[in-house]
Amino acid sequence: MNGRRLPLDWCGQVRSRSKQVENATYVLLDAAAFVSTSPLDLSESKSAPDFTVLSLYKIFGFPDLGALIVRKASGHVLQPRKYFGGGTVDMVVCLKEQWHVKKIESLHDQLEDGTLPIHNIIALDSALDVHSELFGTLDKISRHTAVLAQKLYDGLVSLRHCNDEPVCKIYTDAASSYNDASSQGPVLSFNVVNGQGAWISNTEVEKLAAIKNIQLRTGGLCNPGGIASSLGLVPWEMKQNFSAGQRCGNENDIMGGKPTGTIR
Length: 264
Description:
Helix content is 32%, strand content 14%. The protein is α+β, with helices and mostly antiparallel strands. The strands form five sheets. A three-stranded mixed sheet has the order 1-2-3. A two-stranded antiparallel sheet has the order 4-5. The longest helix is centred in the middle third of the chain and has 21 residues, at 138-158. The protein is globular.
């Protein structure tokens, strides 16, 4: 919600500790947002996550593809799937008796359910070339976006009303810093207040920003836990807001004297 980056070495720590118990623990890393602006090094297999998901769409904008990277030693977890259908079997008998043989030669063959999006896969080659030509490496993108985030953060912090009260309430994690790209991504989450400290409607801020060709995301940000924690919303308040008409995407963004979402 606020761009905080959790330590990637947690993956290796979980694996090493799981060896001490009877039931193995596997780690799934959601790197979709991370790899859009930062390189991800999985070369050290012992500390790498068992499964990594990422969005090629979030990196390139097109094509609409995602990826699942599987640590070979953990691939067996995906093999007992009960689903069977087009693309996952080598032979099917359906007359007089029911029998089939699943693909076993490679893991990616076993996971190819149905027809692959061939046109999108072909387009990925062009996306890689254009991305490299425009932006160079992800390391360069990471440094650039980190500088932009730091500049924006410093600018928002310095905004003051005529009575010297702050304009923005910025939500950051105590363990992250905009001076450290390993702990903080290029994301800012904040709300706006007037000179008397009253909350300004996020919907109005978004509309005014759009007039100036500034694109913002406002609301719950698909992160109910982060929103509740940052805004100090306890369960009964969220239930009360729902009963009063709050719904995801509507304009009820200040209820009970508190904002129901943030600007990101």
